[in-house]
Design brief:
Rossmann fold, alpha/beta, two-stranded parallel sheet
Length: 141
């Protein structure tokens, strides 16, 4: 199977050039990789407390977000009662391979609300529960 270059013959070139297809496919994969983490974030705005912590690990996890008014969401789903928190956490943990829950609570939220959510999350039996914090600056320690 040799390739004809059309040097003196009047035959059309019938080979498919796959280079543009590969280029476009790679660009689409990169766009998907960049935008996927943004799609899962909650629309509740929280200011998480600052602490000295280990670096974040890249794990498949369930994120429980609590804003300063006490509104709660699990990944992108807003929930209202502790029973709903438990039910949705169980559903999300069933889909998760690591069974990790990260709680993002606003630093101005009442501690009782966070503890109620923590109790509901514990009933879902995750392997690990983390509290999200911001890294403190060296002068803030």
């Amino acid at each position: 199977m040799s390739m004809k270059t059309g040097g003196g013959e009047d035959e059309p070139i019938t080979d498919i050039n796959v280079t543009p297809l590969v280029d476009v496919s790679l660009v689409l994969v990169i766009i998907l990789m960049v935008t996927a983490p943004i799609m899962v974030q909650s629309d509740l705005k929280v200011t998480i407390p600052k602490a000295v912590t280990d670096e974040a690990k890249n794990e498949d996890h369930v994120t429980v977000t609590i804003d300063k008014t006490g509104q709660t969401s699990i990944n992108e789903k807003k929930v209202k009662t502790p029973d709903e928190i438990e039910q949705w956490t169980v559903r999300k943990l069933d889909k998760s391979t690591d069974k990790v829950v990260i709680i993002k609570a606003d630093e101005g939220v009442d501690e009782g609300i966070v503890l109620d959510a923590l109790d509901s999350i514990k009933k879902a039996k995750p392997k690990k529960i983390y509290f999200a914090t911001q890294q403190k600056g060296k002068s803030e320690k």
